[in-house]
Amino acid sequence: MGTGVLTVPFPRVDGELCAGPFRLSELAERFGTPLYVYHLEQIEARYHAFTHAFREVDHLVAYSVKANGNLAILHRLGQLGAGADIVSLGELYRARRAGIPTERMLYAGVGKTEEELREGIEAGIYSFNVESRGELKRLDAVAASMGAVAPFAIRVNPEIVSPTPHEYTRTGHAETKFGVMVDEGFELYAWARGRPHLRARGIDVHIGSQILEPRPYFDALSRVIAMVPRLREEGDELEFVDIGGGYGVPYDAEPRLVIEDLANVILPLVKSAGLRLVMEPGRFIVGEAGVLLTRVEYVKRLGTKWFVIVDGGMSELIRPSHYDAYHAIEPVVMPGAPHIEVVDVVGPICESGDFLARARPLELPEPGDVLAVRTVGAYGFAMASNYNARRRPAEILIEGDQAHVVRERETIEDLVRGETIPWEKPGKGGRGER
Ligand code: LLP
User: Fold this and answer.
1) Which of 95, 173, 264, 307 is the most exposed place for a label (fewest CB within 10 A)?
2) pTM for the whole thing?
3) Which domains does the chain have, with CATH numbers?
């Protein structure tokens, strides 16, 4: 297997953006827009780069399903050896359906229901990452009622304000809802000790998302690893330390998090603790491997301002609107005589917050042109919605010289599936007639 040479995703060849042997313009024509396109070799290269960097220690890459839960992607990552970081029964189902072994899964999340705990135990997942006293008690009760032993790790809140681009993606300090404080962590491990239905298997921390430097990881890991000798002394035989996800990727001109640098900084700590290392990357594996293709419907000028109105918006990609996130946007075919204007690229949704880019210098496109929105492989489709009764787009996966439809575009009927009009006569419906 390769060591993960990272090549530029979706390069421009002879003026056209491409994915392997395909021109993106051709894919837009063939499958329609808006359209998510993923390049499998990019995903594989990033997975290999990631796992290669940590090869010196026993480790598990538990891919964070929330970033992109497409079955084909999960399946391939599972084949490569990845596990899964899951947060719902839906993600458990997806990951299992894609063939990822449950003993490689970690169940995270602050609000696990009784049903989720039961099904997770039943499935035989590797560990529950427990985020509160209430959850640990509930886990004990559920495991006891099943006559099972539930493996867990306590998610420690290390009180680190991580340098993420938006406050919504910081999770490592006490202002946020995540984890428990160090002292409470000790209390919870002590409480669990001697309870026959609980097994302390590891310790967990996750400080946020889109982090571009190794330092915050070092700080967070130091904090939890410092807890380990005392826990061992008190009788816990911990097996792993989970440092969560959050490994950043370049969206604009920012430097990439060099994964070897991160490994160099944290591996000595992991080795000294003698623990298995669990990591939960999402964005790092899939982020750059996806583009959203969207077609220009109209170009208009209001006063001095240019608007490029495209057929994809916040329902397909909510990150610009929700986190004020930057995504590079480029024409898939470079125009002959470029004419740059500062524009807002906006969607068709009836909200002023429906934009993909604001005040962005762009080659002024014409109606019918296709634009590529970059770095949307993570938290793109995964956060898409049906707002404004829009059909969620198709997802295409490029594998070698094949373009697979790995998710069909939703149909109009999909939009009303499960809904009923109680006073409509049976057998009728669909057209509003009575
Ligand atoms: N582990 C835990 C416990 C997490 O909460 C998350 C992300 C991850 C791993 C994966 O993080 P990643 O490696 O993908 O950064 N929707 C936001 C990001 C929110 C992430 C939530 N948790 C975005 O679009 O930037």
Assistant:
1) 264
2) 0.96
3) 1-39+283-434 (2.40.37.10), 109-279 (3.20.20.10)
